[in-house]
């Protein structure tokens, strides 16, 4: 990012796993800069789902840098994830034809359950596969593949952890960090929010805020996708040798497997 230093900007890392995000400041003006962002950011900005995109530039290295308005604010806390605002924004995302058309123009193909299962099943280490709960979950996944028609697939975020929800000082709610966006079953996002943040007795109320009914088929799909995401997190933390976090996800995986046993 030497280009911006030369132009008189001061840059500070804005965190994130990629290490490619910065807070840039010059003469009291602050921007959020990111290298190699997806063109999808333009559509997200236009929909008001992320802070407004100010410009996109190709710098001397050939990299593309995007600048967004810097928003002072905070991440949502876990108790706020069962709110009407979260449900409504997620529904807006899942219902957006503009976002869906943008991903299609980027030639993204629908992510079917069979592909998700094949991807996770082929990536697991021997250590993770040796775990009884993981093996039991993989058997469940193989035997209970969802069958939602892909005509009902939407844009999904894929990582709706509370840390990715930003509430600005102006009371604006955003969902950020879209590197994992897919065209897929919206139950992927819905299930992870409900299983992680909402008491099961309140699921019907949350789904009503979102705008759908609490059906048996939806519960089956939510459970399936939540299991596959939990296994992916177990594998990720095992690779990072963060074994306490890995064990926490194994515990979560076991809870999901044992809940809704009638499904």
UniProtKB/TrEMBL annotation:
<dbReference type="GO" id="GO:0016301">
    <property type="term" value="F:kinase activity"/>
</dbReference>
<keyword id="KW-0808">Transferase</keyword>
<dbReference type="InterPro" id="IPR011009">
    <property type="entry name" value="Kinase-like_dom_sf"/>
</dbReference>
<keyword id="KW-0418">Kinase</keyword>
<feature type="domain" description="Aminoglycoside phosphotransferase">
    <location>
        <begin position="14"/>
        <end position="222"/>
    </location>
</feature>
<dbReference type="Pfam" id="PF01636">
    <property type="entry name" value="APH"/>
</dbReference>
<dbReference type="InterPro" id="IPR052077">
    <property type="entry name" value="CcrZ_PhaseVar_Mediator"/>
</dbReference>
<dbReference type="InterPro" id="IPR002575">
    <property type="entry name" value="Aminoglycoside_PTrfase"/>
</dbReference>
<protein>
    <submittedName>
        <fullName>Choline kinase</fullName>
    </submittedName>
</protein>
